Amino acid sequence: MNYKKLAELYEEVSSTTKRLEKIDILSKFLKSLKKEDSNILYLIEGNIYPDYDERKTGISNQLAIKAISKATGTDSKKVVQEWKTVGDIGKVAEKLTKQKKQSTLHSHILTTEKVLENLRKLPELVGKGTVNKKLALITELLTSASPTEALYLVRTLIGDLRIGVQESTIKYGMLKAFFKNNKEYEDKIQRAIDNSNDLAIVFQIARKGKIKELEQIHLEVGKPIKAMLAQKAKDIEDAFKKLGKPMAIEYKYDGFRLLIHKANNKISLFTRSLENVTKQFPEVEEYIKKFIKGDSFILDSEAVGYDKKTKNYTDFQKISQRIRRKYHIEKLQKDLPVEINVFDVLSYNGKSQIDVPFKKRRKLIEKILTNHPYKLISSKHKITSSKKEVEEFYKKALKDKQEGIMMKNLEAEYKPGRRVGHMLKLKPETNELDLVITGGEWGAGKRAGWISSFILSCRKGNKYLEIGKVGTGILEKETENSKITFGNLTKLLKPLIIEEKGKSIKIKPKIVVTITYQDLQKSPNYESKWALRFPRITLLREDKPLSEIATLDEIEDDFKNSKHQNYRYG
Ligand code: AMP
Q: What is the pLDDT of residues 60-96, one digit of tens each?
């Protein structure tokens, strides 16, 4: 196919921010594609291979600049200069290509096949002279590109397509194009995508419009799949309500997720981001061969680190380097040993297990695996209907230095890549702070006469610095469980108002509240230079002195911890 047609699709999809319009544009485009064009689905997502494939173009901005300079005959210093003013290196390529095209005659026509052919050669190049070879491959494409084509080529090269299309947009595009937007089929397309992680394969079958054929796309051992994700439980009762009685409880190990594949006596280990880490864990390969029966399988597990002397479990941070480091593996293996805790099975000896109820999957694990503590074990697991038992189990998990517990519905299926309501986690709430109210805003309409939003501050020395604003989650009427109403807060704060400007007010720091929040981010808008995201007042702490509210230092520490959370694999 002509690359021009794809570039036009990119333009059209980018021209709207409306999801439904994007889906509509995509569905028309997908309808126009032939079977042989299926690789274009990778390009629509800005990739050159399926999601699970680690081969990416991986071109640096520097190399892109060189290529643009060469292809457009512009001095590379000027390209850099343009980049500084324009900001988007793709736009720079577009602009400079336009200027060049005015002075030269058009060269070749670029096809999507040629684009993919050259881009797919990039990750294969290693060793001496690589940079120049890469440069030649890219320049060849850019020389034949129109300005718009150059824009998207460069963005694809640097891995930043920016057209606002996600996997789900493509899913809905296919649903509309090939299944008359029949919502009943949405899950089936999703399942096919989850099982294969390959949009081109799903497209090839979906375009025939036969849902039965799509259901034949199964998991493949050796091909990485996305792990199933958990939701948070409010507490144990909440879990019983959502999961039913009895439910399964397990330790929530503080390590990293490891999906284990075995096929033809070959073991592959993948992280939750589908990264192949087999080479980094030779001992795990051995454990699997020795301690698990079966010719082929896919297992889900958590790898946890422990101290080689005390045998106490350690936290994720300690073993994280084992994932990254590709050298001195033997030493790392000795210094930072891991224990594999197997908690699920997705496929066994050629049979998919993802539709089998969890309790049966667990039984299968127990049948095929022999426990070898500090090497490989099945996760600590219990079936219970008793709240007390769950509490004891939870306490023990924390005592054993684990993060908390997982609670699972015994009848549930395994859904790759989904955050599901049938697997819940419970861990100590840490996103909690005591802060003081230092300002607010008078409400309007229904809330006239009430202070309807509240500015929260933390402490630095004896100064109070703003860190967030809360307006939602406050009640109109008092309930048995909460006194946090607009009326009550207004009553408490009104005498403390020290300044009013229009609707906004400053309040003398006195009223301390406990808040929970989702996360913390840097922000120029507040004096503290931080902002709490989604804070909610959960308690009035009239008993708490100002000296006991959270300090900026403590909050910054929290941030460091949450940053660690973001980088974790587990
Ligand atoms: P979170 O990372 O807080 O969303 O919690 C979910 C993660 O807990 C999973 O992705 C696993 O890596 C980890 N985990 C630890 N132990 C278990 C277990 N027994 N069952 C399922 N997931 C577990």
A: 888 999 999 999 999 999 998 998 788 788 999 999 9
CA atoms of 243 and 424, how far apart (whole Å):
9
Ligand 1 touching residue 252 (CB < 6 A): yes
Distance (angstroms) between ligand 1 centre and the Cα of 538 equals: 27
What percent of the chain has a predicted confidence (pLDDT) above 90? 67
CA distance 559 to 94: 40
Domain boundary among 392, 426, 460: 426
Q: How far is CA 202 from CA 189, 196, 347, 349, in A?
A: 8, 8, 20, 24
Query: How many domains does the chain fold into?
Result: 2
Pairing mode, strands 297-305 and 519-522: unpaired
Coil, strand or helix: which one is 155? helix
Tokens 């394969």 correspond to 201
pTM of the entire structure?
A: 0.72
298 and 418 housed in the same domain: yes
Residue to mutate, 225, 252, 343, 566, ligand 1, most ligand atoms under 8 Å from C-beta: 252
177-189: pLDDT as tens digits: 999 999 999 999 9
Segments in 55-129 forming alpha helices (H):
61-72, 76-86, 89-103, 112-121
Tell me, yes or no, if 252 is annotated catalytic. yes
User: Which candidate in 22, 252, 262, 408 is catalytic?
Assistant: 252
